[in-house]
């Protein structure tokens, strides 16, 4: 069985003020603006699950997973004006971002 090739871009955000619910709501609102980018095939906004095993990192505040058809679509997403505006408008909310890209 051959799997269809897609490009997954998974971003984890650590908020500067992790207990501030308003900051969490604002970041989620900002992430939803990114869904307007035409190359976004599907997406998921997530919070840490209530799981507890040694291999799990649940220290992040919010995650953003996007599925693209291919790497070129992800590349165009990175320079899309909507994405650039998101970074400009919301980057003051986070202290750390980690990205995992997979094909």
From TrEMBL:
It comes from the Bacteria. InterPro entries: Dabb, Dimeric_a/b-barrel. PROSITE patterns: S_R_A_B_BARREL. SMART domains: Dabb. Residues 7-102 form the Stress-response A/B barrel domain. It holds the Pfam family Dabb. Signal peptide: none annotated. This is Dabb family protein. SUPFAM superfamilies: Dimeric alpha+beta barrel (SSF54909). The lineage of its organism: Bacteria, Pseudomonadati, Bacteroidota, Chitinophagia, Chitinophagales.
């Amino acid at each position: 069985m051959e799997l269809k090739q897609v490009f997954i871009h998974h971003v984890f955000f650590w908020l500067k003020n992790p207990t501030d619910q308003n900051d969490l709501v604002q970041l989620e609102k900002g992430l939803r603006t990114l869904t307007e980018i035409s190359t976004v095939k599907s997406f998921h906004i997530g919070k840490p699950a209530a799981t507890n095993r040694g291999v799990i990192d649940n220290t992040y505040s919010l995650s953003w997973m996007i599925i693209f058809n291919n790497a070129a679509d992800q590349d165009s997403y990175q320079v899309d004006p909507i994405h650039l505006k998101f970074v400009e408008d919301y980057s003051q909310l986070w202290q750390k971002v980690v990205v995992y890209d997979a094909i």
